[in-house]
């Protein structure tokens, strides 16, 4: 997702995955797409439990994206809001249809306004904005 964002015009991207192998693979894929490390940062770790990693994320982002299961999005919701600038956008997907309302409620409780809900083949994607 972060490489796609850069290819679509994002100035910089910060990516994180729980799998240690993600760092090398992501940088390799970025290089194959003509993206250098000067605009792309990749880290491995659990942003939900690693406070040092969470601080490294910084903030004031226009967009944050996550394609992961509902439980992780729900746990991540309170951490996403402070990462976004005013009017910032959170796009999340990978949500099984039976959990969509629960995820939307968690986003709302975290101070985000769910503005769009898309469903296809039993999966949901949500768009939420900073209130």
List keywords for this structure.
6 strands; 34% helix; 131 residues; single chain; 5 helices; alpha/beta; two-stranded parallel sheet; 4-stranded mixed beta sheet
Q: How is this structure best described in words?
A:
- It is built from 5 helices and 6 strands; from the N terminus they run H-E-H-E-H-E-H-E-H-E-E.
- It has 131 residues and is an alpha/beta fold.
- The chain has a 4-stranded mixed β-sheet with strand order 3-4-6-5, with helices on one face. A two-stranded parallel ribbon has the order 1-2.
- Helix 4 packs parallel to helix 5.
- The radius of gyration is 15 Å and the shape is globular.
- It starts with a helix and ends with a strand.
- The model has no long low-confidence stretch (mean pLDDT 95).
